[in-house]
Design a protein that fits this description.
Spore Coat Polysaccharide Biosynthesis Protein SpsA, Chain A, alpha/beta, globular, three-stranded mixed sheet
Amino acid sequence: MSTSLINSLLLASTAIYLGAAVAFLIGLRRKNRPARSRSRPFVSVVIAARNEADYIADCLAGLVNQTYPADRYEVLVVDDGSTDKTPAISAEFAARHTRVRSIAVTDAFRHMEAKKRPLSEGIRTARGSIILTTDADCAVPPTWISGMVTQFEAGADVVIGFSQAKSAGDPQTLAERIQAFDFLALMSASAGAANLGVPLAASGQNLAYRKALFERVAGFEEIAHRPSGDDVLLLQLFRRAGATVVFADHPYTFVNTRRAETMAGFWAQRRRWASNARCMLALNPVFFVYLANVFLLNLLFPVALISGISGTGVGLPLACFAAKAMADLLVVWRGARRFGRTDLLPVLPVWEILQIPYTVLVGLFGSFGSFVWKGRVHKPRETGKSGVLALK
């Protein structure tokens, strides 16, 4: 490939990236401030739990101490074959709090992969008209349910909540801060896109939707064989069905995860996420193009740099890299201010450099091989309903 062609591709890819960043910034300037409502619909909080004995008690302690009326919500802990004390801890909470129910997965959804199976079990059992999901290793504020429900009273069908890897002020290693910054960047882009009416991403750590909508899109059936996507891919099913999606940007709805992934766990997690990219081609082609462009841009940086050293110079690739870094800074800075995480901004230079090999390798390896989730291996097999590679 000639240097001129590489440079042309780099310029085009950078322009697309900058255009998306401008859109995220515009969206982040919009604030979502729904009016207070006295309506109190019945809510079901569904948690998929597998070997979470170290965290589930703290999670449930927060959920049974909500400002939302105790008789207007339930907490369903769906155990997914735990081999530790998770079921016992959940059962103990259920014995002390009538609004907590501890259930186990059945064969009803045995064709579902990873979290989709226990989540489907819980949602089928749920009595609430609104489903809230979080993870067993997360901590929610006392105002979480009330804050998320307020969004529905303003007309939302789906509410994306902010989640973070530990709160500001918590002690963190450099590796943990890089992970937290990476997730903050994802959340910032997600908020900006949702505020523009083009929802792209969400996290199951803090997500809510109407049960009727979940049933209308046939739940996880279309994406049943994916190793992840119980949040991002489900969001695209909702979007395709014409749902109104909003982002809850109030501090009283923020969720924290107390567990920092090991580097191996972080790698495995991001590979699982990246494996959904091809599925996006069927569910949201525009988002797929954006993801492909992010991969291409990070791939072109080293290619153009090497080509420039032996040819036209390195000015263009360095200028494009600087432009991308500035765009990232503006988006994450805006998000950090909105979500109270400006403490993470000093990590940007390290994260920006690591983004290049990280994005390329995760993009490549995320499309192939097996995936491990909670001690279970998911291996590729034939195509699923979405017309993309399914996983076993």
